[in-house]
Structure formats: C-alpha cells, structure tokens
Amino acid sequence: MRVIYLFGLLLSLSVLSGCADRIDIEDISLGLMIGIDLDEDGNLVISSSSPVFNKEAKDKEENMTVKAITIRESIEQLDATITALSRRGKVQVILIGKRVVQHKHWFRVMDTMYRDGKNTTVSRVVLVDGAVSEIAMSTPKDKPRLPLYLLKLIDTAYQRNITVKTTVQELHRQFTEKGTTPFMTEMKKDGQITVTGTALLDHSGKYKLTLDINETKLLKILQGEKGGVFSFSLKLPQQPDEGLSQENKASFYPTFIQLKTKAGFIDNHFKFNIGVKMGIVMTERLFDFDVEKNAPELEKQIEEEFHKQVRNIIKKTQKAKIDPFGLGLHARAYEYKHWKEVKENWGEAFSRAEINVKMKIKIQAMGSNR
C-alpha cells in the first residue's frame, strides 16, 4: 500500500511545472520609468530607467536613451546596449514631453502599453514641461530611486489635491470618453523636480493649457473630488492690504464639500447650473475681523472670491474648447437627444454652453485665536 502511495505522489510531482524558463534577477533590466520625447528634428526619443541588481556595479540605477520609431522598437534597441533583458511589467511612471503632446493623435504612440499584456496599466502618466531627459537622467541626492521618488511625489501631490492622478488605464478612458477631455499631472525641473499643476488636452490629445496648483484644487472640486486634503488661501479685496505681509489673506480647509450639477438645453445651447456647498475651518486670518458676530459677511466675501476664480477657470477651458470637468457626462445623462447631435464635437458645444456656478460657504470654526 505504501508503495502505491509513493508511486502516486511521484507521478503527481512529475506533472508540475518546472523552472526551465526562469531568469535570474541579475539578468533582467526591470524598467521602472519610461520617457517619451521628441528631439529638435522631430525624432522620437525613448528614455528608460532601471535598477541594477549586480553586486559589483557601483551605480545602482541604469538610465538609457535611444531613438526609435515606436516604444516597442525601443526595447530591442535598449537590449542591444545593456547586458540584460528588458521588462516593462513594473513601470511606475511614464514621462511625456511637451513637444509630443503639441501634436494631434500622439496617443497612438502608447498603443503597445495597452496591446501587450505584459505591460502594466497602473503607471502614472506625467507631462513634462521641458525636455524629458532633464528629469529622466537626473539623480536626486538623498532621495529614493528616481522612478520611486517620482511616484511618491505624484501620489503625495494628488493626496493634497494640487494635481490629478492619471494612470495609463485612466488615460485610455479619457481619450475614449466623449463627455470629457484628457488631463494629467504636469511637472518640470527647475533646479529641483516640481509638480506644477495639471495639463489639459483636447479630444485629439493636443496640449491646450495648464492649471496651476491652486486652480487644480478648484478643478477637482468641480469634478466631484472629495478625498485627500484641501487647503485654501484667498486674498480678499474687501479687506485692507497693509503691513508687513498681505493682511487681506485668509486661509482655511473644508470640513465637507457638496456638489450638485444640473444640465439642460435652452435656446440651442446647453445650460449647466453648478452648486457648491462647503463648510470651512479658518486656519489663518491676517486682518482684524469679528468672525463670531459677522460671520455671514466674511462668508460672502469668500464666496465672491471663490466664484471669481472658478469663473476664470471655466472661461479659460471654454475658450480652449475643452471639458476637463466632465460636464459632457451630465449632458449625456439628462439631455441625450441633444447630446447625440454634438457628441463627436463636444468641445465646440461646451464652448457655447451657459455655465452658472453658485458658491455657498459656511464657517464652522474660526480657530483658537479670535
């Protein structure tokens, strides 16, 4: 009986998969970052950053740049210059140069990221204001490996709501969704690597404009974002601007944000009524004001300044014929008959839309210093 048992055990082990195709980690170039840019002659330049696992190597990071027609072709060229096999399944960040996104339909270059199942779709996609090589070839001191450092920088900025977080998968959704236009994190290197805000593109993928970190906060509120940390500092023109610093500034953070959007179609154009309610806690006030007695007056001043900034962002996006807010999704949901007629050119219809925003601020706490 024991012989039969052992024979069955050996038989079952014989059909298990082995490790004939295993590759030692020292023989793999594990790409953690990809850079896509154009040189002065319009040639596609692909950068790659990979960790080095060889014990004898002094540099623990290998940064390479090659010219290639496609991203897929660049892998073969990289394999011709390094002593390891390139793998892209762990890419954390994809840097895209501004020269690239100034061309229509550049998104086709990303085809292999979606077609090849060995690639990951959770990589962060970032627009670089300047040459990609300035970031891709840099080695920040006292920081983690460059790709991991950039990943942490982007995610932290996203949690603070000063930029967006666009993954490869999310970017594909934005390009295929007709009710919104694409957007992604924007950064540059000016001495040090800095997140500068959010880059906005049109439906063809062409770069249109950039929202700075303060404008990005308002963008995310209008998109319905409620997570992360919001912090605002507003200059109130109604207050005196004197003294050592700008004494008409007030800072606060919201305790809750409520967004309601209604869509309609009147006089041959779309109409959107957006209501934003926000409870706030004061964290800084550089002017004399009795908040306890005159809170409604200060609330109104904050509402007016918020409304002014929101209107400015909306005007800029309508002029550029882009809809990063996703108001097209509301148009499709509530006015589908009219949406069908303009869905192939929503940017143009959005530029003619009437958009009304109403802000409602409620001061819930003024801090310990009155």
Q: What percentage of the residues does DSSP assign to strands (E)? A: 25-35%
Largest sheet: 8 strands, mixed
Number of DSSP strand runs: 14
- Helical fraction equals 25-40%
The total of helices stands at 12
Poorly predicted runs of 5 or more residues: none
The helix/strand series, from N terminus to C terminus, equals HEEEEHEEHHEHHHEEEHEEEHHHHE
Tell me the Rg in angstroms.
26 Å
Question: Can you characterise this structure?
Answer:
The protein has two domains: 25-211, no CATH class; 224-370, Nutrient germinant receptor protein C, domain 3 (GMP Synthetase, Chain A, domain 3, 2-Layer Sandwich). The chain is built from twelve helices and 14 strands. The protein is α/β, with parallel strands linked by helices and 370 residues long. The termini are far apart. The chain has helices at residues 2-14, 71-79, 98-101, 111-115, 132-136, 146-159, 168-176, 213-222, 291-320, 327-334, 336-342, 346-351; strands at 28-30, 33-38, 44-51, 61-67, 85-87, 93-97, 124-128, 183-190, 192-201, 207-211, 232-235, 249-266, 269-285, 354-365. Helix 10 (327-334) crosses helix 11. Helix content is 32%, strand content 30%. Strands 4-3-2-6-7-8-9-10 form an eight-stranded mixed sheet, with helices on both faces.
